[in-house]
């Protein structure tokens, strides 16, 4: 028998896992961060949608067509292990259950889905550094380099 046969099965089991879905306000704009664990190099497709009054509305997607009312206000940025939805001029009419759905090409384990309820009054402001500081070592580096920067400034005077 061919010992290589089980390999594709193992590969398929290593899917994209959504680790965390969070939302915050950046000025008047809503930002929804969909963090995932990247287990494959395959291209990633995504869909951000909102469910309100028991109806699902697609905000931004590479999987299906987004609705006109959102298309002009929404854009998505992709970073390492993070798919980020930006929705401009967020108001209470945009409140609802936001859903992030991820799918990797040729991943047979199905789509990964996570929900978050977004209510304007309960949203926190986005931390300016959250994209930069993926882990604390960044912050540590930043703090350690501050005295250094001041010293350099002093020398250049």
UniProtKB/TrEMBL annotation:
Molecular function terms from GO: GTPase activator activity; integrin binding
So what does this one do?
A: May play a role in cell-cell or cell-ligand interactions during synaptogenesis and other events in the brain.
Source organism of the structure = Sylvia atricapilla (blackcap)
Q: How does it sit in the membrane?
A: Lipid-anchor; GPI-anchor
Provide the gene name from the record: Thy1
Q: Where are the transmembrane segments?
A: none
Q: Which UniProt keywords apply?
A: Cell membrane, Disulfide bond, Glycoprotein, GPI-anchor, Immunoglobulin domain, Lipoprotein, Membrane, Pyrrolidone carboxylic acid, Signal
Give the residues annotated as coiled coil. Answer: none
The keyword Signal appears for this protein: yes
Per the record, its GO cellular-component terms are: dendrite; external side of plasma membrane; focal adhesion; membrane raft; myelin sheath
Which subcellular locations apply to this protein? Cell membrane
Has UniProt tagged this entry with the keyword Mitochondrion? no
Show the InterPro entries listed in the entry.
Ig-like_dom_sf, Ig-like_fold, Ig_V-set, THY1
Origin organism lineage = Eukaryota, Metazoa, Chordata, Craniata, Vertebrata
Question: Where would I find the Immunoglobulin V-set domain in this sequence?
Answer: 29-102
Which Gene Ontology terms describe the biological processes this protein takes part in? cell adhesion; integrin-mediated signaling pathway; positive regulation of focal adhesion assembly; regulation of cell migration
Superkingdom of origin organism: Eukaryota
Q: What is this protein called?
A: Thy-1 membrane glycoprotein
């Amino acid at each position: 028998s061919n010992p290589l046969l089980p390999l594709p099965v193992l590969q398929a089991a290593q899917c994209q896992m959504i680790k965390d879905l969070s939302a915050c306000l950046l000025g008047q704009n809503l930002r929804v961060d969909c963090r995932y664990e990247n287990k494959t190099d395959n291209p990633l497709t995504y869909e951000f949608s909102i469910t309100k009054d028991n109806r699902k509305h697609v905000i931004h997607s590479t999987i299906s067509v987004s609705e006109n009312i959102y298309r002009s206000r929404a854009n998505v940025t992709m970073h390492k292990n993070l798919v980020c939805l930006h929705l401009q001029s967020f108001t209470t009419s945009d409140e609802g259950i936001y859903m992030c759905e991820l799918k990797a090409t040729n991943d047979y384990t199905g789509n990964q889905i996570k929900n978050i309820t977004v209510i304007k009054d309960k949203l926190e402001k986005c931390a300016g550094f959250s994209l930069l500081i993926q882990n604390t070592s960044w912050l540590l580096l930043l703090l350690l380099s501050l005295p250094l920067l001041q010293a350099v400034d002093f020398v250049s005077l």
